[in-house]
Design a protein that fits this description.
Blueprint: H1 2-30, H2 35-63, H3 71-92, H4 101-115, H5 137-182, H6 185-194, H7 196-250, H8 258-279, H9 282-306
Helix pairs in contact: 1-2, 1-4, 2-3, 3-4, 3-5, 5-7, 5-9, 7-8, 8-9
Length: about 325
């Protein structure tokens, strides 16, 4: 009873803080950046992280196993993973990484907000584990898979941001070149002579702007590569441990049910990303990672809508690994 009450309190506190943090982030989007608001939102993120940690520990003690037995619990663990990724730059005091928080913060906030919003109220009460889940492999397999999903999702979103910035730059260059071609030659010559001084004055500004944009693209590419690389390791460990667990539970290492098939597709997509990132331009690898973002959600969330296969207990009434 005590653990249940404590869990209930932590859930409401974390949801309330997340709601406040969302409001602060919306305010910062509408007005100029205010240092005080930014610090408040970061403190709110830290408070929410500790509330989620307390919630997971309380539920773990209360249930006797790592709370990953249904969609609600896996979403809580997913949001906890997002918060870890978000807070790493903050605690390392690396200001050049604070731009990455624009990706990690909304991911953490909205995932936790959805999990605690009341839409999954029926799943808050964890049922007795089915025999297949009563194994020490539960902690290893599911935790690695969810950590892998979190890292891959964040890395993929960084790649999406890279593509948006890159293509916006290309569109501007293309539109400027079209305007230059469409101008008559005589007017172009007169305009060149009359506006030469203005061009020289703005050259330094434009070059510095392009420099910072280039630096941002490189930063997004670097950290997308690092985070996806980490997530790929987690995903690989999760798949391998799941195969061993499947052999113990079902007598076969691989059965090609929908969950396993999409996990393999996800692994393949990001293996292609790592190969592409090593050998080709960052834009090509970013396109692959953007495709991977959709594949992850199909694997994690979409397959559960079917409710078929050996992972049928992984639907909206049980585990989601």
């Amino acid at each position: 009873m005590i653990f249940s009450t404590l869990e209930h309190i932590l859930t409401h506190i974390s949801f309330s803080i997340v709601s406040i943090v969302i409001t602060i982030h919306l305010i910062t989007l509408l007005v100029d950046e205010i240092v005080g608001l930014y610090d408040s939102s970061e403190k709110g993120m830290i408070a929410t992280f500790f509330c989620i940690t307390g919630l997971l520990v309380t539920r773990w003690i209360y249930l006797g196993h790592l709370p990953l037995s249904n969609l609600y619990e896996s979403l809580i663990f997913l949001s906890w993973s997002f918060f870890i990724i978000h807070l790493v730059p903050y605690f390392k005091k690396q200001k050049n990484l604070f731009n990455l928080n624009a990706i990690t913060a909304p991911s953490a906030i909205f995932t936790h907000g959805f999990a605690t919003s009341g839409l999954l109220t029926e799943m808050h009460q964890s049922a007795i584990l089915v025999p297949a889940l009563q194994s020490h492999w539960l902690m290893m397999h599911v935790s690695m898979m969810v950590l892998g999903y979190a890292a891959l999702l964040c890395g993929s979103l960084l790649s999406v941001a890279l593509l948006v910035i890159t293509f916006r730059k290309l569109i501007r260059i293309f539109s400027k070149s079209n305007n230059f071609v469409n101008d008559p030659l005589s007017f172009g010559e007169i305009q060149y002579v009359s506006e030469r001084n203005n061009v020289l004055q703005t050259t330094s500004f434009l070059s510095s702007r392009n420099y910072y944009r280039s630096q941002l693209i490189q930063q997004l590419d670097l950290w997308s590569y690092r985070i996806i690389g980490l997530g790929f390791i987690f995903l690989t460990i999760g798949i391998l441990s799941g195969a061993v667990w499947a052999n113990e539970a079902w007598g076969s290492y691989w059965n090609w049910d929908p969950k396993e098939t999409w996990a393999f597709i996800t692994w393949t997509i990001f293996a292609i990303y790592l190969h592409t990132r090593t050998n080709f331009k960052s834009v090509n690898s970013a396109i692959v990672a953007s495709m991977g973002f959709l594949i992850i959600w199909i694997c994690y969330f979409g397959v559960n809508l079917l409710g078929i296969g050996l992972h049928s207990y992984g639907s909206f009434t049980s585990i989601s690994n």
